[in-house]
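Fold this complex.
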Amino acid sequence: MTNSEKVIHTLSVYVANKPGALARIAQVFARRGFNIESLVVSPAVDGNFSRMTIGCSGKPDGLEQIIKQLAKLIDVLHCIDHTYDQSVMKEMGLIKISVDCEGRSEALQIAEHFGCKTVDLTKESMILQVVGDPAKIDALEEMIRKFKIVELVRTGKVVMSRGQKRT
Amino acid sequence: MSDNTMEGGQAIIRCLENEGVEHIFGYSGGAAIPIFDALVTTETKIKFILVRHEQGAVHMADGYARATGKPAVVLVTSGPGATNTLTGIMTAHMDSVPMIVITGQSVSWMLGKDAFQEADIFGITMPVVKHSYLVKKGNDIPRIVREAFHIATTGRPGPVLIDVPKDISAGPCTADLHAEMDLPGYRLIEGVDNDIILQIAEALSKSKRPLILAGHGAMISGADASLKAFAEKARIPVTNTLLGKGVFPETHELALGMLGMHGTAYANKAICECDLLLNIGSRFDDRILGKPEQFCKNATIIHIDIDAAEVGKMIQPQIACVADAKTAIDELAKHVPSLETAAWCRHLDGYKTKHPLKFKRQGSLKMQHIIDEFYKLSEGKACVATDVGQHQMWAAQFYKNDSRYNWLSSGGAGTMGFGLPACIGAAFARPDDLHVCFVGDGGFQMTFFELATAALHKLPIKIVVLNNHYLGMVRQWQELFYEDRTSGVDLEGNPDFVKLAESFGVKGFNLRRPGDVKRVLGSALSYNDGPCLINCEVEKTDNVFPMIPAGAAIEDMLIDPPTRKLEKPTGST
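Structure:
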């Protein structure tokens, strides 16, 4: 990654499943001029709590303040920055490309290289499902661009700490 | 009536009683009728104070809380009733004031359908509350009220909003009123890290020129006695923020008074020259920093704050201590001996002699003269509320506070219109004390309608309208930084404030000449049949000094009026 590329930070937030929690969290970012690049919310093991993985970008010196302000919210149990640790980080993408029988075998070759599944196939198009770290999906996107990408949907990354470390 | 056959509104009142509430400030309205009805049907002893505008209710609650340290309660209706509380809630939030605001709401099934007087107050207030609730089930009421009080009053205090749809307040509540709280994400700081205390003690022992900065956090923590004992034992001079007025006696030999934009010259000089700054419960507000990158740049900075998010927000301290101020000071006092600060204190005393706060008693009538005389006549014992602007800064300079809970001023928000209702709220809380409100003619006209509330309850408040027919602080900036191009500051068309007061049944006095100050204030102070107002026709174009232009370094403080042209300030407002 070059210096000119912006750093996308990855935060995990463990939050009580209460009304308004997401709005309060979003406000912490908005007020300080941070962009939320991706956001995944799902129930935790205990259904009274939710897991959030938030990808965000903004000035690095503001991030510490964001984390503290998130942790301060009444409904937030903890907030951890996983940007520079070796956590497992995964994302799923669905890419619909426009491809007829002429290009199909090359497309499938690329798909196979990236471990994609073909989840839909028609005479003019196919949908590839890819799972991996976000950089892998970026790379696939780059490669498959020679075909016309009709639609691209990514889930946003989810993160989990390795071993005994908590997420 | 037994606990399990109540209406929601009744449950709310009972829960408020359980929290020790004695007063509610508010304004009725359609969506809140079941709660207002419960004030009658429960035969509660809680006194309801009907104000004249919801903003007045919130500022009254704010004044009540600041004057006692206890949480105050506001009750209003939905829609505009709720949105009118917004400025007051923001004011309380900025200054960490504990408050519960209960708003009526449209019936649940109409939420989001633009019902009559529906406003998404839960959403609108979200950035300016410590926490908020939209009640969805009647049986949640006891838990929510209990949580709201707990959140509002613990840790760093703040306002909590409870929005109650009408079907909930009119519907049944069968839950136990002593409900358990469910706040897994809300953990309070307990105790203090002993290693950090030792580090602070070590740093202090090496310091030749230590300085304590006492802020609102020290006040909220009830650290006044501990702070005094510690400062006296260690022989460390103390400066205070605007909201820290009274947490350390301002007339104490170690006191330097308020620092910052319009603080004393000697407090600001001390900030520039200290080699160690011990900040106890101040959030390093931009009014005291000047230019953050130059602030105390040669000093070791220690920051004690109960809110971890304040540490490093404006200033990165060398030692951070996230703890309750009183707990930290008490612990620190065990490890810090008397320090060799005699030379440093003498040096600062030299500044006190050389650059005292001053004004002229001759010539035109000065706000400072009136405040100073009031200070003397009241022996410094009044509970002082201020509005915002020049008079606020002069009141901070000349009305010395020697004890806590006697200074009610909107610091962070700088809310004009705060003074009169805050003073009224404090008078409800402490009816036997002397209450004064210093207010400008601008701010007074934003909430003067609460004269009715003050008159109705015959509150013993002295309303000192420091009337220069200008929005003086903005005019001062325009004079100093904008080549005297006054714009939007001339309050021509002011009413006759004495006649206005009399129309509410409030006694009025006029004060026009310096020679009359003592006599007129004396008459006002001896007036004992409810509120009175003193309209003071003061110098129109006086300026507040010392002054540190916003964004300038503290070293660039103007102790006296400048003789050269000044650049426009770089800081915000």
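Chain B touches chain A at residues 122-123, 126-127, 130-132, 134, 136, 151, 183-186, 307-309, 312-313 (CB under 8 Å).
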